């Protein structure tokens, strides 16, 4: 096996740009998750539920199988999470008007409110962190957002 620079692992040596981006995204997610937990306890709103609420806000009326596919999770796992969210009053199951045997999942007003509170808590934390950066760093982040969205969509497409 070829030698790498000291302190550089094989993944970093293979594709430093991709690995650096992966590390940055991982650190951002971890930092956001842990800092927003000051407002939301883990038990009150698990990350999987947050992601489902976000998806249902963008794509209302999804079926459980669609949620499972888009989140790359087992259907029974998604069904369990949706059941927990129904019990918590965050979502409802409704008959699919195209196929009465199937159900769609929709946000409730309580689900929308919980998601809105989650988004506002994250916005406060990100805004505070951005305020500590210099103008060129903020501009670079603003410029990168569309490309990061496109990258996320591409990764979803590669499924």
From TrEMBL:
Report the SMART domains cross-referenced here. Answer: HTH_MARR
InterPro entries from the xrefs?
HTH-type_Bedaq_tolerance, HTH_MarR-typ, Tscrpt_reg_MarR-type_CS, WH-like_DNA-bd_sf, WH_DNA-bd_sf
- Cite the HTH marR-type domain residue spans from the record: 18-157
What keywords are annotated for this sequence in UniProt? DNA-binding, Transcription, Transcription regulation
Superkingdom, natural source: Bacteria
What this protein is called in its record is MarR family transcriptional regulator
Source species of the chain: Rhodococcus olei
């Amino acid at each position: 096996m070829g030698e790498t620079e000291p302190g550089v692992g094989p993944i970093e040596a293979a594709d430093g740009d991709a690995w650096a981006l992966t590390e940055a995204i991982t650190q951002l997610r971890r930092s956001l998750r842990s800092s927003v937990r000051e407002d939301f306890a883990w038990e009150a709103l698990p990350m999987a539920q947050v992601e489902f609420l976000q998806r249902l806000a963008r794509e209302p009326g999804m079926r459980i199988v669609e949620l499972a596919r888009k989140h790359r999770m087992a259907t029974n796992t998604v069904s369990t999470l949706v059941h927990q969210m129904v019990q918590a009053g965050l979502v409802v199951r409704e008959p699919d008007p195209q196929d009465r045997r199937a159900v769609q999942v929709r946000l409730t007003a309580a689900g929308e409110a919980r998601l809105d509170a989650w988004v506002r808590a994250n916005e406060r934390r990100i805004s505070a962190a951005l305020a500590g950066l210099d103008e060129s760093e903020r501009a670079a982040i603003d410029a990168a957002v569309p490309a990061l969205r496109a990258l996320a969509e591409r990764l979803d497409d590669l499924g």
